[in-house]
Amino acid sequence: MDPIRNPYAPGAGQRPPELAGRDRELDQFDITLERVAAGRPERSMVLSGLRGVGKTVLLNALRGQAVKRAWGTGKIEARPDQSIRIPVAQAVHAAVREVAHRHRDPDRVDEVAGVLKAFALRTTLPDRKGMKWTPPVDAVAAKGRADSGDLELDLVELFTDVASLAGDLGVGLGLFVDEMQDIATEELAAICGACHEISQQGAPLVVVGAGLPHLPVALAASKSYAERLFRYVSVDRLPREMADRAWRVPAGTEGVTFEDAALDELYRLTDGYPYFVQAYGKVTWDAAVGSPITAADVLEAAPEAESELAIGFFGARYDRATPAERDYMTAMADLGDGFVATADVARHLARKPQSLSPARDGLIKKGLVYSAERGSVAFTVPHFGKFLRSR
């Protein structure tokens, strides 16, 4: 098959040619945008799931829907040990810029720009971590608005003013936050508090976050009412019908079909995880000699897909771990897939549980494992245990 015509797209955050299995989330978000713009109450949204299930792709698709409705949008990717004040200021500036040029009152726009500037300039030295940014606007920084240094209060005032600017045009603003689990607990609490206040005001602004499976737990730990503040969406692997669609539809645009046995084999190998669906689809296309694609083509291509995943998807993550952390992950893999008890890991390694805390905490901080329940851990990457057992 012609590799230039290969329609599959394995990549970090790269939208596949057919975004299968996400219609419900997309349709619901359209309703959210309509309701918020009309001043009706609606919750912000949080997407959570393992690595490789398409959270970033879905987050970007939701942002695209807001853009189509002429909303102002901005996006940040949270990072461990970095304050969100400047990233939020940058994202909000991008969102304001998208609506400001349509506003008929330049003085009103300058007033909001001054509040945004004050918010950005209020960054404390420990929060900068090498980041220094000032909104590229001529407006004078406001005084006494979004510049208190209290992040929650400043976010409320900033969100109120920028949402009001968008509301003048009958639209809203959307802030999209990827890797949300990496935000410090106190800053998560500030975001929750600001979303709570904005929701009560009926202001046209939504926050859409995406993160690992323990993100809902982290939000609830930061604010007790967080479980009622957001609409939580679990992003998981694709059911068989949707996985078949993800393979068949792109191939169909090139006049290529699959035998049922080929789809059976592809689903067995990928378990419907979207990143794997694209990775195996790509190498299978290149290995196939013609249409229809057969199970033999899939089996011939599978070792190449496994090799690429072992180096890029799995290996790159394994290499980030220290020797002690690798021992911990290997023990988890030996104990099986899914959640394993930390006490069982300690017994397997013939160690005291408390002596393994640094390794476990390091893995959590690096995003390699997560703990949704006290005393148990699981890999954030699907098939990671299988990869470790094969080494």
From TrEMBL:
SUPFAM superfamilies: P-loop containing nucleoside triphosphate hydrolases. Residues 18-208 form the Orc1-like AAA ATPase domain. InterPro entries: AAA_16, P-loop_NTPase. Residues 1-24 are annotated as: Disordered. This is AAA ATPase domain-containing protein. It comes from Nocardioides szechwanensis.
